[in-house]
What we know:
The chain is α/β, with parallel strands linked by helices. It folds into two domains: 197 residues, TIM Barrel, CATH 3.20.20; 124 residues, Beta Barrel (Lyase, Ornithine Decarboxylase, Chain A, domain 1). The chain is 27% helix and 23% strand. The strands form three sheets. Strands 1, 10, 13, 14, 15, 16, 17 and 18 form an eight-stranded mixed beta sheet that branches. The protein has an eight-stranded parallel beta sheet with strand order 8-7-6-5-4-3-2-9.
Amino acid sequence: xxxxxxxxxxxxxxxxxxxxxxxxxxxxxxxxxxxxxxxxxxxxxxxxxxxxxxxxxxxxxxxxxxxxxxxxxxxxxxxxxxxxxxxxxxxxxxxxxxxxxxxxxxxxxxxxxxxxxxxxxxxxxxxxxxxxxxxxxxxxxxxxxxxxxxxxxxxxxxxxxxxxxxxxxxxxxxxxxxxxxxxxxxxxxxxxxxxxxxxxxxxxxxxxxxxxxxxxxxxxxxxxxxxxxxxxxxxxxxxxxxxxxxxxxxxxxxxxxxxxxxxxxxxxxxxxxxxxxxxxxxxxxxxxxxxxxxxxxxxxxxxxxxxxxxxxxxxxxxxxxxxxxxxxxxxxxxxxxxxxxxxxxxxxxxxxxxxxxxxxxxxxx
Length: 365
């Protein structure tokens, strides 16, 4: 039997990814970049995206956990890997063996890494994580001087960097500017910029909208994939992922006929309804139902009727007789912004991207 075409797929534009990386690099030319590829490169495909970015002169690939680090290493990618989150004690031997770079949030964690590295007759580069307002991890700012002194007594680890995280860079400008100032103060308190090879605080919003002060490394994530968390910078970026499906069926329903579960939409006239082969089982957000979501087919927008189902959705093509079975449908991409869809779903673009499920084939070009 000949292979069937994909029912739903995501086209990943690597040229757009490169463009967005260059925008990040040009924003502060003296700033090195850690490309954040956690959560499957925000749903774009971990190995393929990491391999592509590793050829673009970046300092680190940022991942959430050891599982992601392992996948990158097994793909033969040699760019240094930075672990953005806390690690389990059972994972640390593997981290030391591969020289993945962890962030340290407690003396107990540091001492365990020191013990393992000493046993392996090596020295592990680590970054000191400090909590400047995120509340998720890192050393609190009290007693940092004595903490650093204790850390530097450990021969098995080397404090190579210092970092923190911005919780509100796209929402609270005053707090974020104060965070940058606090981070600079912490660095000066701990010996000044020359004491740390890497100093990083800015995410995408921090990179685009603020002065990085004493930082020399940034961690762009969402902007690499074409979405600016600060709307005024959106025009600089290019769409990387376009989610697509096909029209699988077209029928004309009479007036008074319900469409989809719960009959939240009932036709008021004879309506030509096209069924599309994608649904919330593919990651398209069901919560967008009833809030104005639209798709793009043959250079026109069409509203989604009723509720999105697990594997399918329906659109009204009454006024477009040219629409046929087999036509490609853009669910989001250059014409339907993922930011628009996220707003209709009462969520955020990060959630939409990372929710695209494995049964959606990724196609790279």
